[in-house]
Amino acid sequence: MQSTAMKHFQGLRQMLRQLSVLFLTLVLFQPVLAHDHDLEVEGFISAIGSDSLGTDSLVVNNITFFVDANTEIRGDHGTPLTFSDLQVGDRVEVHAVRQPDSSWLATRIEVEDNHHPPHDIEVEGHIQFLGVNDTLIVQNILFHVDANTEIRGEHHDSLSFSDLQVGDRVEVHAVRQPDSSWLATRIEVEDDEDDDDIEVEGRIQALGVNDTVVVNNILFRVDSTTEIRGPHGTDLTFSDLMVGDLVEVRADLQPDSTWLATRIEVEEEDEDFRIQGRVQNVTPPHITVDSLTFLVNGATRIRGPHGLELVLTDLLVGDLVEVRAAIRPDSTLLAIRIELEDEHPDTTIVGRITDIGVHQLSVDSLTFLVNAATRIRDMDENPLTLADLQVGDSVEVRAALRPDSSWLATRITLRQSVNGLNDDVRTTARTFELKQNYPNPFNPTTTIPLVLRERRWRKVRLDIYNALGQQIRTLFNGLLDAGRYEFQWDGRDDQGRRVPSGVYFYQIRIDNRVGDSKAMILTR
After folding, report:
1. What's 399's DSSP letter?
2. Of 73, 337, 405, 485, whose CB count within 10 A is highest?
3. Which CATH number applies to 120-189: 3.55.50.30, 2.40.50.140, 2.40.50.320, 2.110.10.10?
């Protein structure tokens, strides 16, 4: 029997190791984090075992953690424990680090209060029935009473079960038992003047098309007077509610004996873990990050840089996000909070907009993604939107190169609009023209044309930059009069070294003022 159980555990451990590898990709996108291989998980121990080499391990939230002599194990009050003190069913918080073989090594295990978060209920109403086996019915709900049930009178005097009578108005506090019955923890006999009402906390079990919700096996009606709120006071609608949401429902008993919900509060769940990575898919109400799919409900807070409030559809595939999540009883992952990260720009390009899409724009034929974190401003730092920009506008784009080789615009500055050029800009635009290189793509050399129209000697500098914004070559730095010029680049840096294939930029400066920048592609 023990051998069979051990084989089952080893098979489970191997499967869960493969599952935990899904978390490995988050380290690829956390170069700025000091602890990018750390994991914190809170949950119940589902398995404990040792392999043939005597290595101890435990499973929490379907993740296998290995334990060694350096693992610190503490009890509920900070008391030191050993691995043998742990038991299946213990509620623990595990701190772990990723090992070179992609397994998780627990650095600290804290045994917490071992009670499951109680499914509480508070009911006010009249006692409808008293059973000889210490049971009572209030608001059509059967409650069990045991020796630990506290019973108080109207003036807080201690009572016994035999003091209760059918018809007494009471407030009952109860918790759900493993067999789904209700155990009364406190019964208070009250003045009989208050209206019948009920407060229930639990998960939504069902949602009806006729605006009904079932929580703790109680059906509640919802109408236009029902107030529905998120955990931070945000206004929600009935359509924002989902099966599985943790809610508190306040309701009034109606003359037809039905319950009308007066207020429904979607509660914030405890965070079990967090992950940083790239968005792979957005299909409301779900989002996939690093191969993990998260449910997004009315309680999920989505924020962009600078505290910007977002909705799920603001997020784009490829966005860098941090997700804080809870593992629900049905093993689904609920996103508690999603933060869209600000990415560090790798390069800056100046040029004219050649095309504008829904979430992108092209500058001199180089396409940049625009997401909810992209800051768009004019020269006076007034905020703009993508819809404010037009083809032909001159812009400065700061961009970050993503792992999929796409460019994300982190900031766009409108330098001049086709509808409102100032005199300085008009003069500059008339005095020179930096044209697109040819051929493009190229190997091994390309030609960069420049036209100077103003008949006077001007200081001109032409530089080449790589995709990281690093200057690698100065093609020209001197004085030029009006005329047409062509500059050759042989794909080498200032030290004469051949540069690798990729996207490069060339930028002109006229009298120390930055002019246009254009992109070119070198192939080897």
Report:
1. E
2. 73
3. 2.40.50.320
CATH class as words, domain 347-416: mainly beta
pLDDT tens-digit readout, 340-350: 988 887 778 88
pTM over 0.90: no
**Pick from 172-176, 362-366, 512-516: least confident:** 512-516
Report the C-alpha gap between 233 and 101 in whole angstroms.
Answer: 45
What tokens does 223 get? 């109408």
Q: How many residues does the chain have?
A: 524
Indicate the burial class of 355 (C-beta count within 10 angstroms; 0-12, 13-18, 19 or more): exposed
CB-based contact 318:406 (threshold 8 Å): yes
- Give the tens place of pLDDT for each residue, 59-81: 887 788 999 999 999 987 778 99
Domain span(s) for CATH 2.40.50.320 in the chain? 120-189, 197-266, 273-340, 347-416
Strand partners, 289: 279, 292
Token pair of 478, please? 């001197």
Q: Which residues of 228-257 are buried (b: 16+ CB within 10 A; e: fewer)?
A: bbbbeeeebebebbbebbbbbbbbebeeee
* pLDDT exceeds cutoff 90 at 400: no
CATH 3.30.70.120 fits 197-266, yes or no: no
The CATH number, out of the four listed (3.40.50.720, 2.40.50.140, 2.60.120.380, 3.40.190.150), of the domain defined by the range 2-111: 2.40.50.140
Q: Which residues pair with 400 in a beta bridge?
A: 408
Average pLDDT, rounded, for the chain:
82
Chain Cα centroid distance, residue 385: 24
CATH 1.10.260.40 fits 423-522, yes or no: no
Distant-in-sequence contacts of 402-405, Cβ < 8 A, 24+ apart: 402/278, 402/318, 402/343, 402/369, 403/28, 403/29, 403/278, 404/318
Tokens of 125: 């109403």
Relative to beta strand 375-378, strand 407-416 is parallel
DSSP H helices, 371-495, are 423-431
What stretch of H or E contains 93? Answer: strand 91-98
CA pseudo-torsion sign 212, 218, 224, 227: negative
DSSP H or E segment with residue 3: helix 2-20
Q: Cα separations (Å) of 181 from 114, 169, 175, 176, 217?
A: 20, 22, 8, 6, 11
**DSSP secondary structure letter of residue 210:** T
Contact, 91 vs 117, CB < 8 A?
A: no
Q: Is the CATH number of domain 273-340 3.30.230.10?
A: no
Residue 514 C-alpha from the chain's centroid: 39
Quick check: 491 and 522 in contact, CB under 8 A?
Answer: yes
Which token pair is 71? Answer: 């693992």
